Amino acid sequence: MRLPSPMRRRGLAIGIDIGGTKVAAGLVDGDGRVIAEARRSTPGQDPRKVEAVIVDLVRELSAKHHVWSVGIGAAGWMDLAGSTVLFSPHLAWRNEPLRENLERLLRRRVHLVNDADGAAWAEWRFGAGIGQSRMVCVTLGTGIGGAMVMDGRLERGRFGVAGEFGHQIIMPSGQRCECGNRGCWEQYASGNALGREARELAAANSPVAQELIRAVDGDIGAITGAVVTKMALDGDQACIELLEEVGQWLGLGLANLAAALDPGMFVIGGGLSAAGDLLLEPARRSFARNLTGRGFRPAAQLELAALGPAAGMIGAADLSRIAARR
Amino acid sequence: MRLPSPMRRRGLAIGIDIGGTKVAAGLVDGDGRVIAEARRSTPGQDPRKVEAVIVDLVRELSAKHHVWSVGIGAAGWMDLAGSTVLFSPHLAWRNEPLRENLERLLRRRVHLVNDADGAAWAEWRFGAGIGQSRMVCVTLGTGIGGAMVMDGRLERGRFGVAGEFGHQIIMPSGQRCECGNRGCWEQYASGNALGREARELAAANSPVAQELIRAVDGDIGAITGAVVTKMALDGDQACIELLEEVGQWLGLGLANLAAALDPGMFVIGGGLSAAGDLLLEPARRSFARNLTGRGFRPAAQLELAALGPAAGMIGAADLSRIAARR
Asked: Which residues in chain A have Cβ-Cβ distances shorter than 8 Å to B259?
């Protein structure tokens, strides 16, 4: 394959973040800056329709710019080559040769990226993890996404499905998880876990939950992690306590990961990280308390992600640029 | 530094395995074969006395051979450079510059190796894990030792203390662990855990435990994991069930590691692995049952270690040979 010129290598790439409700695209330069953005609703689960939306977004963003490559990020498992979606939870993709389809349609180099891998890569290249030799990224949303950058490369495991930290079982016979198991970490330390605990508290009609119940006009089913986070930031004591509890579980799971992986830094991103220190401080205390060998070893820092929700598209774009060089 | 000649590179190295009760040394060739062995009792915890024993063992084994380098394996944390023992549980070593001391005494290149790292490296180079791109080694003894070989190198983390898989917390508020935490995996899936469960069963004076109690002449405190393993291999049903239980916990912890690390193979070594299929079959079933995403992903093989107790010294020797080349 012809090697790109240095200029092209530093050129623009498009990163696309396929979510359950929307498809977001960004035109990203070689320094990780998003130059332009566009988005569409996710058109159901039909792979052909999703491909059509991607083509449309790429046409829009590349109208005025030369675009070197396109990175596609989505929840799910991509093969090691970045060619095939093995499985995606929100989309009806099973062993889908998405890369080949899109390269034919777009006439550009395409690379598939797990969304958590994309976000971790972006944080390591341009965000909170710059310069770290061993960085573990944990994305707290509806579940827990995870990825590792070791020695300057994404560590994706033998089959490309490493980083499913949210599914470490920390409570045998515990809460049922969407994955089919019980007691997965993400049932205790995710945005969904926060919402569930808050709804239980409200359903118990505890005196401490009255503000929370009022905030949703008594519609307990409307309480989500985002509602709790916002109320906690506004000073509601019950919501602060709920975040503390989630933070404690977060710290315990991070201590498990530190025992196994010994990173220099954990980067905490995702929607729930909007809680900032209300989440991170209890997590730091619990991490310090649960870390094996504490006092006899150096310990990882816990830091908030720096790039926000754009991390996924920035990382997908940058990884596609690197893959296209090969 | 002068590069060694090809012959020297393939030359002999000594691997030393410092245990709580004995210090074992082996003269190891470039193909991982142990040419000669020697051993001494561990002379207490005084670093100077342990150094003297090491010097004595190296003199004995190098009397008739040219020895290129010496690898020292011990339980504990070594710094990334292989120079300093940060902490060792059985020996009074805290930030001990063991390498410098020994290089002065031995006039040979010395390299310090965590015992689990040494065993994993040996299994990857010469044993059960040959050719694996991502191998995780789990050593079941009094506790659980762990190490990873990824992409042809030991993955030791940012500070060199990765691989403490035995201290992932899988049961908050569970059994107290020597590390100071509660609910660590090694409290459920190690040789010590097997012994403890068997002693509890015997203390309950259950009808199913009568054979076990007879085997130790009623001295319940004398029941160890090794006793249970031997009786299970001889067909005792209660001991087989105890191993099944430990195997189930083993499989659960391995599923957690597979979620995070996605290796192609787990290699199971250590004293408890002498139980063979009586341990491995329940572990495989539990692993398959607890693996997140099962059915939608390829899964790691679980295999027994191939090199036995010599793995530690073979790995230490080989790693010292490689370090001496740098």
From this structure: 164-165, 167-168
